[in-house]
Amino acid sequence: MKLRGLYAITDSELLAGGKLLPYVEAALKGGATLLQYRDKSSDDARRLRQAEALRELCNRYGAALIINDDAELAARLGVGLHLGQTDGSLSAARALLGPKAVIGGTCHAQVELAEAAAKEGASYVAFGRFFNSHTKPGAPAATLELLDTAKRRVNLPIVAIGGVTLENAPELIARGASMVAVIHALFAADSAAEVEHRARAFSALFAAN
User: Phi, psi at residue 204, to the nearest 5°?
Assistant: First the structure.
């Protein structure tokens, strides 16, 4: 599949109280191409149940489901995987999940990490934080210049993450981001209809480029 467009990431607090499935479906209806299921809880049975339901939704809308930091769950469901720098080896994940799985790696603000990820078989590389972020507060480390460098040195789709909004996403896309990963600016909404509206607005930014 083409790795371009809106990359939606779930948040267990934002999507608590029965919002997970309706809000995710709204994001997929609005054109999200990738969905990352991110849940750091230790309730394995619930995580499996939720991930199975999300896989069904992604299949219905032609999107790819990516599991955050759980290669075994990704292998069990036959879906993609996203690994942070401390979440294990990309090459081991590639061996486990096979050649077709979408596997991404967090590269913070270092092109060298992205070059290493490319050698280990990553499908995409994620850089951030570009802007102040609710999920991971602290000073932004990644710059627009980093995108220029990464585009020259790494021949993989680039994901920009960290405080991405409708206002600042266009400059990231213009500088080479293939996807923008969004949590709060997508899911911190009063209704599923609002999530769909925001997803459409993000997706439209890619059509314009």
Answer: -65, -25
* Joined tokens for residue 75: 């292998």
Q: What is the pLDDT of residues 9-42, one digit of tens each?
A: 999 999 999 999 999 999 999 999 999 999 988 8
Of 60, 87, 61, which is closest to residue 74 (Cα–Cα)? 87
Q: Which residues contact 161 (CB under 8 A, 6 or more apart)?
A: 7, 9, 126, 127, 128, 129, 130, 180, 181
Per-residue pLDDT tens for 72-99?
A: 999 999 999 999 999 889 999 999 999 9
My answer on whether omega of the bond before 198 falls inside 30° of 0, hence cis, is no
Name the amino acid, one letter, at 141.
A
Residue 33's closest CA among 149, 205, 193? 205
